[in-house]
C-alpha cells in the first residue's frame, strides 16, 4: 500500500443545511502539493441504506420518486438514511415499508458502495430483502411513490430506460443477481 | 408521467471552487411544499466519462488513485472530465492514455449513469474500449497511478475488495460483461 499524502491544512470553505465543503491542502509522497475539496454530508453520520427487495424469484422492486438533482421522476431502489441507534437491516426494512409498502422476513447485508470517492465521503449499505409481505409505514416523503419492478434478466435494458440512471442502484441489482444465481435460486 | 413539482424559488446558498449548492422551494402537485438542496458541479459543464478498457477478452483495467473524499488509495475505472469541444469517445481515449498508459482502437458508448439523482445533477458517460495499445499522455495527476486489472468473472469478489467501493464503476463493469456475453466475445 502506498504512503498516503499528508494534509497540511483543512478548512470548511462552504456550508449549507445539507452540505459542507472542506478544502484540504495535500502533500503527496513525491513532494507534489495540491488543493483538494471534499464534500461532507450533514445529518448522514449514521450512514445510508439501499434495498434490493425480491417480490418473487425473478423481480426486484423499484420506486419512482421525484429527484431534485435531475428535476425528473426517476426509477431507483428504495433507500434512505439510517437513524441514530438503528442497525442496517432494521433501517432497510423501515425504508422498504415507507417507500414501497412492503416488509421483509429475510434481510441480508451484501456490501458497501461509495458514491464518488474522489471528492465525497458518503457510503451506502446494500441490503438484499426477500420473503416480502405487505406493510406500509408513514415516511417523510412529500407524496406517495409509485412502485414498479424489474426482471433481473433485464438489467442491461433497465440501464437504457429513460427514467433510470443511478449507477449504484444498477450495481446493487447486478450484485444481487450474481449472488442469487450462485445460490441456484435464480436462473439467468 | 407524473406532473413535476413547481419551483417557487431558487437561490445559491453555498459556493466553493468546485461546488455550488442551490436551494429550491418546491410545490408538489398534491400541494405539499418542501425545501430541497441540489449540488451543482463547477467546471463539469461538458460532462465526464468512465472507461471499461478490455486488455484481453477477460480482463478490464483498473487504476489505483488517491481519493480525497475517503482519504484512501482506491481501485476504480479510469475516468475524468470531458474538455470543451471534445467528444465523448475522444475524451475516453485521452483519459485512458493519461491514467492507464493505453490507447484504444475501438471505443463504444454504452450508457449514461447518474451519481445521486436525488440531490446531484452530475452524469457520467460509460465507454467500452478494446483493441488497446501502449501509449502514455501526460495528465494533471499529482502522481503516477498504479494500473491493475480485474477478471469480469470476479466482479462480486471485486465488490468485497477493501480498496474497491465505487458503485457506478461496478455498474459499468457489469454492463460491459453483459454486452460482451451477449455478443459471444466473453464466456461467463
Please describe what this structure looks like.
The structure is a homodimer of 188-residue chains. In chain A, the strands form 3 sheets. In chain A, strands 7-4-9-8 form a 4-stranded mixed β-sheet. A 3-stranded antiparallel β-sheet of chain A has the order 1-2-3, with no helix packed on it. Chain A contains 3 helices and 10 strands. Chain A is α+β, with helices and mostly antiparallel strands. Chain A folds into 2 domains: 6-41; 48-182, Nucleoside Triphosphate Pyrophosphohydrolase, CATH 3.90.79. Chains A and B meet through strand 1, strand 2, strand 3, strand 5 and strand 6 of A and strand 1, strand 2, strand 3, strand 5 and strand 6 of B.
Amino acid at each position: 500500500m502506498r504512503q498516503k499524502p499528508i494534509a497540511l491544512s483543512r478548512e470548511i470553505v462552504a456550508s449549507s443545511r445539507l452540505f459542507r465543503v472542506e478544502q484540504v491542502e495535500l502533500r503527496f509522497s513525491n513532494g507534489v502539493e495540491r488543493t483538494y475539496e471534499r464534500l461532507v454530508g450533514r445529518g448522514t453520520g449514521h450512514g445510508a441504506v439501499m434495498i434490493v427487495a425480491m417480490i418473487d424469484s425473478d423481480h426486484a422492486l423499484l420506486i419512482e420518486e421525484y429527484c431534485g438533482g435531475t428535476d425528473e421522476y426517476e426509477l431507483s431502489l428504495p433507500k434512505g438514511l439510517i437513524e441514530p441507534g438503528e442497525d442496517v437491516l432494521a433501517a432497510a426494512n423501515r425504508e422498504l415499508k415507507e417507500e414501497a409498502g412492503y416488509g421483509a422476513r429475510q434481510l441480508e447485508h451484501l456490501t458497501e458502495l461509495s458514491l464518488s470517492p474522489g471528492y465525497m465521503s458518503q457510503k451506502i449499505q446494500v441490503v438484499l430483502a426477500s420473503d416480502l409481505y405487505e406493510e406500509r409505514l408513514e415516511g417523510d416523503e412529500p407524496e406517495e411513490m409509485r412502485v414498479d419492478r424489474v426482471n433481473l434478466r433485464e438489467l442491461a435494458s433497465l440501464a437504457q430506460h429513460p427514467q433510470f440512471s443511478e449507477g449504484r442502484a444498477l450495481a446493487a441489482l447486478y450484485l444481487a443477481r450474481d449472488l442469487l444465481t450462485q445460490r441456484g435460486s435464480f436462473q439467468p
